């Protein structure tokens, strides 16, 4: 059995303290009425005096990311799915029992806060707590604040920690489903039908890749996790489904690096009575539609390049593209030596 670190043991001792106080250490219910994004969008431009007059009451919840306390008051930041917001807590407002819970809290704990929105003397939009509720005790400490989770392999192995510590990772995680939904709507509007094809297959096809192999006990025969969706989708065209697509998981028992994973998601689509130019039109519209929906426009900056995804796109033969970039012309017939 693995021995706990000193910090892990301290946190487990605090779990017992919570139980003895009659506080549920994990999974308390809390009715959230707002979040950091809504509060900032609705009240960031209001003055300190306006907020004092309005007394906007909110109920928020999140993970404690920073904490500083002096005597009978303290400040801390909680993080929800949209970002962070500062909380001001005072013994006189929440009472000794709740303030003791705050004092005993650790970074990473999840708490619920009831209070009103205000601005500090430095102008930071915050919540003045009138009630503090412990929700979930974090049993492991978060990575150190200023360095975060920097090891690439560790980030990939512990995605849940990466999501806590890395704002870019959270942004990607919430953007991905938005992209997928946009693709689905776009293709559905073009008359495509989304389908699901078998993940377990008795034969391989559609790509040249090493498969994951398993055994089907009832049939007493080997099966393979699919390495592509091409063949079953084409069979659906044969069956009369004129336009089909699938967004699904693919499995290839091969190398692992930053750009390759044994399990990944692909999209394949097939349309009867069309050709490569028709598929070009669909692909062009797909990129433009997704970019506009996700980014709010057709222009993006990527790796120092300004890209405009407004159609029509430039269309060029691959051989001409190679000649344009590399200066090598593959159109003339060449000998093997050439």
Note poorly predicted spans. none
CATH class of the largest domain: Mainly Beta
Separation of the first and last Cα atoms: 64 Å
In CATH terms, the superfamily of the largest domain is Nucleic acid-binding proteins
CATH architecture assignment name of the largest domain: Beta Barrel
Rg, rounded, reads: 28 Å
Notes on the protein architecture:
The structure is a single chain. The protein folds into two domains: 6-136, Nucleic acid-binding proteins (OB fold (Dihydrolipoamide Acetyltransferase, E2P), Beta Barrel), CATH 2.40.50; 169-284, Bira Bifunctional Protein, Domain 2 (BirA Bifunctional Protein, domain 2, 2-Layer Sandwich). The protein contains ten helices and 13 strands. The chain has helices spanning 6-20, 36-43, 48-54, 91-104, 152-157, 159-165, 167-189, 230-238, 276-295, 318-326; strands at 57-70, 73-80, 83-90, 110-119, 125-136, 193-194, 200-201, 213-216, 221-225, 243-251, 263-271, 299-302, 305-308. The strands form four sheets. It has a five-stranded mixed β-barrel with strand order 1-2-3-5-4. α6 (159-165) crosses α7 (167-189) and α7 (167-189) packs across α9. The longest helix has 23 residues, at 167-189. The chain starts with 5 loop residues before the first helix and ends in a 12-residue tail after the last helix. GO terms for molecular function: ATP binding; catalytic activity, acting on a protein; lysine-tRNA ligase activity; metal ion binding; transferase activity; tRNA binding. Residues 178-275 form the Aminoacyl-transfer RNA synthetases class-II family profile domain.
